[in-house]
Write a structure and sequence with these properties.
By secondary structure, the chain is α+β, with helices and mostly antiparallel strands. It has 15 helices and 14 strands. The longest helix is centred in the last third of the chain and has 24 residues.
Amino acid sequence: MKMTRLCVLFGGRSPEHDVSCMSVVSVIGAIDRSKYELTTIGITKDGRWLIYDGPVEKISDGSWQEYAEKKLAEEPEKYGFSVLAANGRGLKDMTDFVLPIVHGPYCEDGKLQGLLEMADVPYGGCGVTASAVAMDKIIAKQVFESAGLPVTKYTYVTTADIADDLDACLDQIEKAVGYPAFIKPANMGSSVGISKASDRDELKAALDLASRHDRRILCEEAVDCREIETGVLGNDDVKVTVPGEIVATEDFYDYDSKYVDDGKPKMQIPANIPEETSEKLRDIAARAYRAIDGSGFARCDFFVDRKTGSIYINEINTLPGFTAFSMFPLLWEAAGSPYSSTIERIIELGYERYNDKTDRTSDK
């Protein structure tokens, strides 16, 4: 049986580069080498694509780039390529399928997906539109509202607004959202640049932090809530896991809690919630996924108010973490799909979407 040439992408230009490196080590270890001929490509922080065939330990400790650059210098014919190649070796000549294990801007926001579409290579995960919409927290909120899905109170400002009249921005946020409030860069993941403000001084500091990561800033009500997540797999036929809960030990589930503190937050699967709430969450997750035209896989994140039980959709993560203690693979393991099987299903769904698009194009 012919093996599928599988290319796994990791790294990237975003601040979530290191998160990707953590995720990809687990993915590489789970890939069935009897089915897939593996090529691994790392994207450096300055945007270069390098074939990497060294030990996974160098990915974990960050020394993979030096190794890959040395190999490229020694054997440019073997290690050199261009993603889009009119002549010579391109990505399509090297691989049958691309599995992006990357996060954040330039990776998860539709830009990478658009590049892969241009290269005419099937890939795993959501397409250009869904990736771009889900990555932009402000646009995602607006799409969810249009679909009749519940969201927390929110407003947004830009860095130009802040520079023009900071006090007016502070007044706007206090009137629309109040305190406490979460302040977030519109396009960022893994809780990068997010902070909680409980008064005007903290709000100023939060806006300053978020401004370092994006020109558009989401400001939303900080409800006293439980953080609940579901895993989604599918194209037209959408499957949703039972919800799991993030039981954080900090004020909110920040970057260090997720990736630095050795999995300090506990993940309870299934979440200890009423069955009626669980069914509502799964229904909203499927509706939200369809609203952004999701395909392949995603993780849907919710807030559940501790006092009222009200449900609010927070965001859809179209390339969720795949570390050993990430919620998405753990949710599917609890649903009876082992880590390696979930990866294979993502590949199948990517081929399904690619073949559907190709069939429609060839009919014209």
